[in-house]
Each structure stands twice: as structure tokens, then as C-alpha cells.
Amino acid sequence: MMNKSLNLPQPIDAYFTADKGDGEAVAQCFTDNAVVKDEGNTYNGLAAIKQWKIDSSKKYTYTCVPFACEVKDGITMVTSRVEGNFPGSPVDLRYFFTLEGNKISSLEVIL
Questions:
Q1: What top-level branch of life does the organism fall under (predicted)?
Q2: Residue 93 lies in a domain
Q3: Which of 20, 39, 77, 86 is most open to solvent, judged by the fewest CB atoms within 10 Å of its CB?
Q4: Is pLDDT at 2 greater than 80 in this prediction?
Q5: Closest C-alpha to 64, from 50, 79, 76, 81
């Protein structure tokens, strides 16, 4: 469940909502040439981002609850509590978003 008092920019709010669904819904939150960095890997473009989300959803079952948001130098950092069936759960992950219009152009997920 998302923290209702947290006022996330629309594309980021859409990302966390889509994250509960499927890879296609997540990919639709990104620009055509977007880049995602997660767990030491880099995913370029919508097809790779869609596959990243499909693979991570198959690998683990998790919930993600954003609880802090800060904008600095054009980058929006969202901190989320992630709980699931993965090693080290629960963890607070930091998501660094760069937006382009109403889409996400880059995302880096860091522990």
C-alpha cells in the first residue's frame, strides 16, 4: 500500500502503481530510449525494461511502499520499503528517477 500522504510526481506514481501489475504496464511509464539500472545491470529501451520487470517479478514476490520523496538537481529520489521473498528482505531501496515530460527517462535502483 502506498503512503497516501506522499505526493509523488505523476510518472513516478504511475510507475509504483504499474509495479504491482505486469512488465508491459511498467514499460509504458518510460520513454522509448529510457535506461534502467538495477542489481548491477543496465536495461536500455522499452523491450529491455519490460523484460527486466517480467524477470524480477518471476524471481521474487514483493511489495514496495514508497515513504519519502526528494527532488534535487532534476533527479527525484524516492525511498521505498520493499518486502518479499528475496535475500535481505525487508530493505529500503532508493529509486533515482529522471523525468522527461510525463514519462521516466532513467531509473537507478540502489540499496
A1: Bacteria
A2: yes
A3: 39
A4: no
A5: 81
